[in-house]
Amino acid sequence: MFDHTLSAAHPLSGYGWDEGFAENFTPYAGQGIVPGRIVRVDRGRVDAVVAASAGDGDGTGDGVRTVLADTALVATSDPMKVPCTGDWAVIDLENGRAGNHVDGVVRALLPRRTAFVRSTSSKRSEGQILAANVDHAVIAVSLAEEFDLGRIERFVSLAWESGAQPLVALTKADLAGGPDRLAHLVEDAATVAPGVQVLGVSSATGEGVEALAAVLAGGTSVLLGRSGAGKSTLANALVGEYVQDVQAIRDRDGKGRHTTTTRDLLALPWGGVLIDTPGLRGVGLWDAETGLARTFSDVEALAEECRFPDCAHETEPGCAVLAAIEDGALPERRLESFRKLRRENLRIVAKTDARVRADIRRDWKQKQALGRHMGERKRGSRG
Predict the structure, then answer these.
(1) Confidence of residue 56 (pLDDT cuts 50, 70, 90)
(2) What are the sequence ranges of the domains in the chain?
(3) Which of 29, 65, 217, 371 is most buried by its number of CB atoms within 10 A?
(4) Single pTM value for the model
(5) pLDDT value of position 44
(6) With b meaning 16 or more CB within 10 Å and e meaning fewer, what string describes 205-223?
């Protein structure tokens, strides 16, 4: 039977513990077995926050303490199943105390509610989980460098696919060039991210930080973005103290040294937690069809009005998407970005799905045949 006392007034409730996670933990409950939230992963070991017992001398004063645990019992070659920052873990504190300088062993991971996944840079078909059990995915976009709408679309698509609610934070807003320019950039970002809140934020002046803090209060959030986007500086502003090392980044090009190398889970003063991540040089899509559909809901809505249900929005008569581009209702850049990301996503999915590979091959053959046919017609008309 589910014991509601596992979650009611639980010391870990500020870290996201609730009745659902407590119910999933029930089968593991036993002597020395405790739930813990992973705050950092490093070389086969994790730091995890657990409830402090009455006899613990290392409690932090808020009823929790941090332990170091091996992940040997959940070792796997599948990158989608390895422990990740934000995971809730089943930790055995009776193992590993003697001789190996750790407090216990992670025996299992509780089911993830959400997971932010990107494709790895390897040629193999693998995904990498950047953060787990996240409510809000905060996409940091620096206004100190070139404003890239395509990058926003890519990150927002992955955020929607993860199950989290995306939020775009235009950082270094004090460098935007004034309030009017900032308002214009916020509007541009909102246009390519339907249903997503966009905030201009400056850690230097404090602009927008309070509004962002109000949105993130009480839940789990992850900061994502390129190196130099100001994520760690923003994390310090949200936490209210210097918790993440930062290095100076040149405002003119966003370049410099970047010191965040691990994904860290930080407690927020008003409740809830924030996961700061290293800067991402690239973020590949990972089976993000649903996320793309939400990010490009404007294109999808127009496509439903096309004359042909399989319209490719290229030269077909009665194409509502092309008509919207012609009359200025839809930017052509938006359609090109949609095509690019869909092609990339299909390539990723095709690596593991034979049916998708067959569909791509059939479509390629049809286009080849059409090209030959059009070439023959052109040659015939000249003759």
Answers:
(1) low
(2) 4-109, 115-276, 289-382
(3) 65
(4) 0.81
(5) 85
(6) eebbbeebbebbeebbbbb
